[in-house]
Write a structure and sequence with these properties.
Elements: H1 2-22, E1 34-40, E2 43-49, E3 56-65, E4 68-80, E5 83-92, E6 96-97, E7 105-113, E8 116-120, E9 126-134, E10 137-145, E11 151-160
Antiparallel strand pairs: 1-2, 1-11, 2-3, 3-4, 4-5, 5-6, 5-7, 7-8, 8-9, 9-10, 10-11
């Protein structure tokens, strides 16, 4: 009988350990922290991510074309139970909101590793995947279903920016 118990403990313990190691946490997302910048298709983009603190991560995105802001995104990643959820709002220049006052774009973490995180809407219509390709380069892939029902994909390449100017 003790042999069966030993065998079961050898099988179950690694499974439970593996599950707890793969569960996403805010600390797992610390690789996003910092100021990231990139230029693409005539526009300049900045993303700024805080370190995890107070059970949250906050951040912002700014897109600039011809020296003028096009739009902004502001977000917080907060825990919903044990799952980190990316909660975002969009604004045009002048801080004109896209979403209604009580609405946010909600994207729970669906996958994470020490250098990768995927946030996805539960209906599958929006996915954002971040990959830290090395200490100073971050790639963001945005996949969405547009108003015509077509799948669109945009890839953004960022490099770590110096905070001193």
């Amino acid at each position: 009988m003790w042999r069966l118990g030993l065998i079961l403990s050898l099988i179950v313990t690694p499974l439970a350990w593996g599950q707890s190691q793969s569960a996403p946490t805010l600390a797992n997302l610390a690789f996003l922290s910092g100021h990231w910048t990139g230029d693409q298709d005539g526009s300049h983009s900045d993303e700024i991510w805080s370190d995890p603190s107070g059970a949250s991560i906050i951040g912002m995105y700014r897109e600039v074309e011809q020296g003028k802001p096009v739009f902004y995104e502001f977000w917080a990643i907060e825990l919903d139970g044990a799952t980190p959820v990316f909660k975002m709002k969009h604004f045009n220049a002048g801080m004109i909101g896209w979403e209604n006052k009580d609405e946010v774009v909600r994207l729970p973490v669906t996958e994470s590793s020490p250098t990768t995180v995927t946030f996805a809407r539960e209906d599958g219509k929006l996915t954002i995947r971040y990959v830290l390709t090395d200490a100073n380069h971050l790639t963001s892939t945005l996949e969405r279903i547009d108003k015509q029902g077509q799948r669109k994909s945009d890839v953004f390449h960022f490099h770590r920016a110096s905070m001193a100017h």
